[in-house]
Recover the amino acids of this structure.
């Protein structure tokens, strides 16, 4: 799912870039006018805008294209997801994270083991949210609770669907 999602996203972005590039080549003056508005909104004065647009038009069209895509369309090639990397990351994540809820069942299969599995899973989810704050600088309690609650909701929905299918 992660592979297909990031691959599809990349394909949509690449198509958008190609279409924009064709349009830019077809009528560059139109897009230079649009870029003038973008530069003006960013605080450039008329002299700076004139110099930049002249440079873009006569000396460095690729920089203009890249800047235009980033500012007007909101796409940057550097920000594209890598489908195989995403798929590999998801595979490893699912492989290791599935150990937590499954491990207790190696020691039996009853209500007590199921409860232990649920408790360990919720604790692990909270821990993931807490560790995430190292990178996000958010409140550790809010982040931990957010991940744990989303995980509980997803588990409940999965259980509910399984129960409904079994009827």
């Amino acid at each position: 799912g992660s592979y297909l999602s990031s691959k599809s996203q990349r394909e949509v972005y690449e198509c958008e870039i190609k279409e924009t590039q064709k349009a830019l080549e077809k009528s560059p003056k139109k897009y230079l006018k649009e870029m003038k508005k973008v530069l003006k909104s960013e605080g450039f004065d008329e002299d700076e805008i004139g110099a930049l647009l002249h440079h873009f038009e006569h000396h460095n069209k690729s920089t203009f294209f890249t800047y235009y895509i980033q500012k007007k369309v909101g796409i940057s090639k550097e920000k594209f997801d890598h489908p195989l990397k995403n798929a590999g990351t998801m595979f490893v994540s699912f492989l290791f994270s599935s150990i937590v809820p499954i491990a207790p069942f190696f020691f039996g299969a009853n209500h007590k083991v199921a409860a232990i599995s649920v408790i360990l899973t919720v604790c692990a989810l909270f821990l993931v949210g807490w560790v995430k704050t190292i990178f996000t600088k958010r409140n550790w309690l809010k982040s931990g609770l957010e991940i744990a609650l989303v995980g509980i909701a997803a588990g409940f929905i999965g259980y509910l669907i399984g129960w409904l299918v079994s009827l």
In short: The mean pLDDT is 83. The helical segments are 2-26, 28-41, 46-58, 61-73, 83-97, 99-102, 111-136, 140-166.
